[in-house]
Design goal:
It is built from 21 helices and 20 strands. By secondary structure, the protein is α/β, with parallel strands linked by helices. It comes from Clastoptera arizonana (Arizona spittle bug).
Length: 596
């Protein structure tokens, strides 16, 4: 009643800021939180606060209609002088816009005097009160939020209920000031925010747009999908959050904030979920209850030959961490005349018939994927590798640098190419070592113990072709593996050992001890205490080339319900792992020819 008596409340609940038919405002409420932080520490910045100044010349008896033209004018002059900001650089003013004609006129006339002198284009003005009403104690913060929206999006939200300019404001009539009545582009990066309050209180803030891509290096300009992980107490709540996320415009800063919010787990949050943004044609989201009382161990599984494919690293290079890892590998092999980037992006048919390309390509992809996992805080509790995948074990275990790993892979390929070897072949067969060891001809060896139901054979090409034909005829699965006509992990590769050992000794100058988490698949368990097994040495990795791959035996050390992350260009071992490790969670990081 007092407000109505004072004539400051609108009769029709419409706030007609700056309009000639304005008759007051309507009261409303808002809750606003602003977070101020030093620019160098800010991870998410909407704008920089250049300057803010306030002035109070009244007391509790002073009302809006006693607004002082001179006091407000002096405040604006001092603000821009102290900030050393040219008034002509202001692109937009978020005004008080009280919708009381007298106060609106005083405010805009002062803005005209201070900010429009010698201005060649109209100064845009607006007031969020026309949209939300007067939120009283939070009104200035609401005005700042609107200014931040304009700076962040580059679009100024329009005023409502503006029909004709206030006749007491010549600058509105002449066009020097222009009320924003339609969404328009913000042409500039500095805005001002006015405040006129009860008791003769005045304020002005100058805000500058944040140049995100220069200042915030965590903001990426790309089209990469973002994995958002969430947790909470109720399934319905998480499903609602995911729905809202999928309906929102994709914003990398917001994705980063969500990661930060849900990084810390709570024991009370027994529901977990995830989604991938932007939403794809097929939804990739899931919510489920999680009742485990202990964390599951994470194991890295490095697969080897057969996981390579044309163009396997092309899209992974969009990830900065991965690209940086490849740059290190590229530099390490520059003197050899080898381009790692070309190897992992090449789509030429038959490119991987060259075994050196295969070894180097697989190693480079594994270095990049390990770096990605480490960058997001995923460290292994256990590590196991298949064949040349043990180079990846050495890297993940901290025994190799990226340069040492890629050079070791190069050495393996170079030794294979330079050595005169018989024409050989390898093939995956749907029988385990114990099932097939007494069936194979003397010229063929079991090169890899994959699982109780799978092994890989190695031997001379003619003998292998003959035997594999018999296996298939018996209705047993058998598939050739592209190993560039070399019978690895058998007696036929032994002539390459001296060259490989020599090359590795040039690369691995200071062999590091292998940790207990790295389970050897190239040395039998009864020899794990031997000097050969103790370090990631040239001798260890030469032995890896010569001896059978004891992957089945090594996998028996993996605890039940572990999380197995296969690290390779393609999840080659998934079928084997899912059959042999039925209680584990199996995650392949990549898939052959997968678009992402």
């Amino acid at each position: 009643i007092q407000y109505m008596g004072a004539g400051v409340l609108s009769n029709d609940d419409k706030v007609k800021s700056f309009s000639n038919d304005a008759d007051g405002y309507n009261r409303s409420e808002a809750v606003v939180v602003l977070f101020l932080q030093r620019a160098e520490d800010a991870r998410r910045c909407y704008a920089s606060l250049i300057h803010v100044k306030t002035l109070n010349i009244g007391d509790r008896t002073t009302f809006f209609d006693q607004t002082s033209h001179e006091s407000f004018k002096n405040l604006l002059q001092e603000t821009y002088f102290e900030a050393n900001v040219d008034p002509l650089s202001i692109a937009y003013i978020e005004a008080e816009g009280l919708a009381c004609p007298k106060v609106d006129a005083i405010e805009l006339n002062v803005v005209d005097e201070i900010l429009c002198k010698n201005r060649k284009t109209p100064l845009l003005v607006g007031s969020v009160k026309s949209n939300l009403g007067h939120t009283e104690s939070s009104t200035n913060l609401v005005s700042i939020v609107k200014a931040l929206i304009a700076l962040d999006t580059g679009r100024i939200p329009p005023n409502l209920h503006y029909s004709c300019p206030n006749s007491k404001v010549p600058a509105l009539l002449s066009g020097k000031l222009k009320v924003v009545t339609e969404e328009v582009h913000l042409k500039g990066d500095i805005v001002g925010v006015n405040s006129i309050g009860f008791s003769g209180t005045y304020g002005h803030a100058i805000l500058k747009k944040n140049n995100k891509f220069n200042k915030n290096k965590t903001t990426l300009c790309d089209n990469l999908p973002r994995l958002i992980l969430i947790h909470g107490r109720e399934v319905a709540n998480l499903e609602n959050i995911i729905k809202q996320l999928e309906e929102m415009p994709v914003n990398n800063e917001f994705a980063a904030l969500m990661h930060k919010v849900f990084l810390i787990h709570s024991k009370q949050h027994i529901v977990r979920g995830y989604t991938i943004l932007p939403k794809l044609e097929t939804s990739h989201s899931e919510v489920q209850s999680y009742s485990r009382t202990k964390e599951l161990p994470v194991w890295f599984v490095f697969s080897g030959m057969g996981s390579q494919w044309a163009g396997m690293g092309k899209q992974l290079l969009e990830i900065p961490v991965f690209a940086a890892a490849i740059d290190k590998c590229e530099a390490a092999l520059a003197s050899k005349g080898i381009s790692v980037r070309n190897i992992i992006t090449n789509t030429t048919e038959g490119f991987f018939d060259n075994i050196l390309h295969s070894f180097v390509g697989i190693a480079a992809i594994q270095v990049g994927l390990v770096d990605i996992l480490f960058s997001i805080g995923i460290k292994p509790d256990g590590i196991v590798g298949h064949s040349v995948g043990e180079l990846g074990c050495a890297y993940a275990d901290g025994c190799f640098t990226a340069e040492e790993m890629i050079l070791s892979a190069y050495a393996r390929g170079q030794a294979s190419i330079e050595t005169s070897l018989i024409k050989g072949m390898m093939a995956a067969v749907g029988k385990g070592y114990n099932q097939i060891k007494n069936e194979i001809p003397d010229s063929i060896e079991v090169a890899c113990h994959n699982s109780s139901e799978s092994c890989t054979l190695s031997g001379p090409t003619e003998d292998m072709e003959r035997y594999i034909g018999q296996v298939k005829a018996a209705g047993v699965f058998a598939k050739l593996v592209n190993v560039s006509n070399i019978a690895y992990h058998s007696r036929y590769i032994a002539p390459a050992a001296p060259a490989l050992l020599h090359y590795l000794q040039e690369v691995i100058k200071d062999p590091k001890p292998r940790s207990e988490r790295w389970i050897s698949s190239s040395i039998p368990e009864d020899q794990w205490g031997s000097p050969l097994a103790s370090t990631s040495s040239p001798e260890y990795h030469t032995n890896n080339l010569l001896c059978p791959v004891l992957f089945e035996e090594a996998c028996k050390k993996i605890p039940a319900e572990a999380i197995l992350i296969e690290i390779a260009p393609h999840g080659l071992l998934q079928a084997i792992l899912r059959r042999s490790q039925k209680l584990c969670v199996n995650i392949p990081l990549t898939q052959r020819d997968n678009k992402d």
